[in-house]
Specification:
The protein is built from 4 helices and 9 strands; from the N terminus they run E-H-H-E-E-H-H-E-E-E-E-E-E. By secondary structure, the chain is of the alpha+beta class. It folds into 3 domains: 86 residues, no CATH class; 44 residues, no CATH class; 78 residues, no CATH class. A 4-stranded antiparallel sheet has the order 4-9-5-6, with no helix packed on it. A 3-stranded antiparallel sheet has the order 1-3-2. The radius of gyration is 17 Å and the shape is globular.
Length: 212
């Protein structure tokens, strides 16, 4: 079951067989009722549980051999929550002890997006991968507003873009980000209080910063 409390203000990491989506996070798609309706697009039927929903990817957990297509129920569940996903999750790994291969920002991003389409995970080769998430510079400027469907598969950042601050490194990214595929709806921007409580949701403009 996916549970990433420290990252909750920025969105979910991804899905598993059971994924809990709290009511606060559903505000990114307009609130609990709007979220449940959106899920129906993908034949996903979230179950009400406490102050949120449980999304069940099939009746039982499924294995996912990398040489086979991913389980369809997981693909549909992933599509339903994609606008709620954190588009800049950073790294799932920690420092190496004996030089063993561990997740970094690039491979973490690929793993999180493994249900977005074929050929994402595993990569053809781990050699030569960049430190940060992969992506190409957009061929043209693309901006979409909350509630509008995405037309270009890519990584979107809330506009206007937050400027870099003194001390930021080349990999530092400020401001919310989300990965969207064609047909996905652009989310609201949700503002939280100092204790993680819901304050407001606002219509936002999202600018394409990397094509995928």
């Amino acid at each position: 079951m996916v549970a990433d409390l420290p990252h909750a203000p920025d969105g979910l990491k991804g899905i598993n067989w059971l994924t809990f989506v709290g009511d606060l996070l559903t505000e990114r798609l307009g609130g609990p009722k709007a979220f449940a309706t959106y899920c129906q697009r993908f034949n996903v039927h979230p179950e009400r549980y406490a102050n949120g929903f449980i999304i069940r990817a099939g009746d039982t957990p499924q294995l996912g051999p990398v040489d086979e297509p991913p389980p369809e129920a997981y693909v549909r569940a992933n599509a339903a929550i994609r606008p709620l996903r954190n588009g800049k999750y950073e790294s799932m790994g920690s420092g190496s002890i004996d030089g063993e291969l561990r997740f970094n920002r690039c491979t973490s991003d690929l793993w999180i997006r493994r249900f977005d389409g074929p050929g994402i995970w595993p990569p053809a080769s781990f050699a030569g991968l960049p430190r940060g998430p992969v992506g190409t510079e957009p061929a043209k400027k693309v901006r979409i507003e909350t509630g509008k469907p995405c037309v270009v598969h890519g990584r979107y950042r809330k506009y206007p873009l937050e400027p870099a601050q003194p001390g930021d490194g080349a990999d530092d990214i400020r401001g919310p980000m989300v990965v969207l595929l064609p047909g996905d709806l652009a989310p609201f921007h949700v503002t939280l209080g100092p204790h993680g409580e819901f304050v407001s949701r606002e219509v936002a403009t999202w600018e394409l910063v990397a094509e995928l």
